[in-house]
Amino acid sequence: MNIYDNKEYMDDIRYVAGLELPWEKLKNKSLMLSGATGLIGSFLVDVILEKNVTENLNCTIYALGRNEEKARSRFYKYFENENFFFVVYDVKQPLIREDLKNVDYILHLASNTHPILYATDPIGTITTNVFGVQNLLDFAVVHNTSRFVFASSNEIYGENRGDVEFFDESYCGYIDCNTLRAAYPESKRCGEALCQAYKAQRGLDVIIARFTRSYGPTMEFSNTRALSQFIKKVVEGEDVVLKSSGMQYFSYTYVADAVSGLLYALLVGENGEAYNIADKGSDIMLKDLAEIIAQIGGRKVVFELPDSIEAAGYSKATKARLDGFKLQSLGWKSQYDINMGMKRTIDILKSLRQ
Predict the structure, then answer these.
(1) Which of 111, 140, 147, 187 has the smallest CB count inside 10 Å?
(2) How many CA atoms lie within 13 A of 192 on its CB side?
(3) Could you read off the pLDDT of 105-141 as tens digits, one per residue?
(4) Residue-range domains of the chain with CATH
(5) Contact at 8 Å (CB) between 57 and 49?
């Protein structure tokens, strides 16, 4: 089965496309996004193109990515659609395209999100998050883009100092910048600072969307995050492998909720503000998450020591729960808690393997 034939997935797409948002801001407009084939980006593309079909939104998508074959396979339903254009592009290079005259909204969603890559390609991790956002910010300024959205991360908060239970958008925890693993959180912090610099110096309208550890049926099995590997194991009929004590206490978000939060930030958010996309119903310790996933798949949890490369790529944070009140005050709310989201993810992914 392909993803567009899966009822649960299409129900998720239609749910987000049916939210009461000021969609008129996107009507007859254009939206460019990097990371178009990623977990968040691919779902967002499907939502906008579904909205085009059902309500004649007529929003043009410019999907940026390095691999046209991958994009053609993922978006086969829309690849020849008059509102969809795939642009072969590496965000670490300046974006100079004479054929892209008018781009109303830009979302920078591309980033290394694999712990293995944090350990083996820290330079690529930094340059994607820093040079990548600057290249797209420069493009936005030249093309008078209405709004620029930078997809940031819960990792910018660092380690909980023990003074709060939840991180609101003003919190600043501890990160040891003099380490290999700092490549990801510090470059995300720098990306946010660049957005604020372009707002102040170039007059650009910017929004920061801070995602938690997101998951869903648009994930890739090649992703080496613990959560992704837990899901991969049960989908393939194997036991869940936990490579730590599992006491890490984090926030998670199902992809439909992550994208709905992104749309609220894009369409309702205030210029210059950062928004946590998080709900307390999806906060859980890693060991408990492993158990939930194992139970859904009818498997068990087994323990294994990580190798040196895996250990180097793991986050050092042990407690990072995000406060989603600011985004919720704009009207956003989560549709799926951790149990519902995990079951939905596994069910859909299993069906896609049939």
Answers:
(1) 147
(2) 21
(3) 999 999 877 677 777 888 988 988 899 999 999 999 9
(4) 3-220+251-283+317-345 (3.40.50.720)
(5) no
